[in-house]
Amino acid sequence: MSEETPRKSVEELKKIFDLHGKVAVVTGAGGTLGHALCRGLAAFGADIAGWDIKTDIMADMVAEVQSIGCKATATAVDVTNDESVKAAMEQVIKDFGKVNIMVTVAGTAGNRQPAETFDINEWQKVMDVNVRGTFLCAKYAGAEYVKQGGGGKVITIGSVRGFLGHPGGYAAYGTSKGAVHLLTKQLATEWAKYKINVNCIAPSIFWTPLTEQVRRDPEMVKIFMARIPMGRAAELDDFVGACVYLASPASDYVTGVILSVDGGAVAG
Asked: Of these residues, 140, 145, 173, 245, which one is catalytic?
C-alpha cells in the first residue's frame, strides 16, 4: 500500500488560488469577457499577455491590469492563422520569459440564421474562429509548456449551446462550441502525461455585442430566460471565479472538465 500523500499546511492552502509569478495569455482580451477575465486573473497576481485582432481595443484592459500592479501587454493576433499565433507566442516568451496559463476567449457568434438557409461562408467563419482558433492557441501554449518541462493550464471557452440545441439559429455557433468541448477533453487526455490541465468554461448567455442580436428580440430573450432556472443572464464577474480556479493550483487534479457557469441551464 502506498504512503499517504503529505497534506498541505494551512498556509499552503491559503495560497491555492494565488497566481503571483504566473503569466496568462488571454485571447479576445479586448472584448467584454476577455477584459473581465484579464482583470480577474490580475487581481490574483497574474501578469497578462493580451491577444486580439487589434491592439487599440486592448488599451483599457492594459491600463486596468497595470493599475492592479501586474504587467500587461497587447499583441495583435489572428487566432485563425498559424503563423500569427506562433509569432505571438514567441513574443510572449520574449516579453515575459515563460507562459503558464492560456485562456482562449476569442470567438464569434456569427450571424444566427435558420439552418435550412444558413450561408456556408458564415458557418465556416464561426468554425474557423471558434474551433481552429481555439486549437491553434492551445497548441502553441501546450508546446511551450512541454518545452518548459511540463505543467501549465489551458482554459477554453465553450457554451451551454455546446450541450443543447436551441431554436435561435445556432447551427454554426452551437456546433462550434460542441467541438470546443470535445477538443478540451482530447487535449486533456493527450497532455495529462505532461501535467498540463485542460478545462473549459461553458457560459450561459450574457449581454455583450456578440449577443446583441438576441437582446434586440424580446421573444428570444423570453426563450433564453425560460431555459435558465436562475432566471437571469450571466454577469461578467460570474465567470471570474471559475477562471481563477481553473488557472490556479486549486485545480491541479482537475482536467478534461466542461464547467457550466449557466444558472442551472444544463441541469434543468
From this structure: 173
Q: Is the pTM of this model over 0.85?
A: yes
Decide: residue 218, CB within 10 A, 0-12 exposed, 13-18 middle, 19+ buried. Answer: exposed
CA atoms of 110 and 179, how far apart (whole Å): 16
Q: Which domains, and CATH codes, for the chain? A: 10-260 (3.40.50.720)
The 10s digit of each residue's pLDDT in 45-103 is 999 999 999 999 999 999 999 999 999 999 999 999 999 999 999 999 999 999 999 99
In the residue annotation, 140 being an active-site residue is answered as no
Crossing angle for the helix pair 240-247 and 32-43, nearest 10 degrees? 60
Q: What pairs with residue 113 in β-bridges?
A: 170
The alpha-helical segments, DSSP class H, found in the chain are: 10-13, 32-43, 59-68, 82-96, 120-127, 133-147, 173-191, 212-215, 218-226, 240-247
Q: Are the CB atoms for 203 and 261 separated by under 8 Å? A: yes
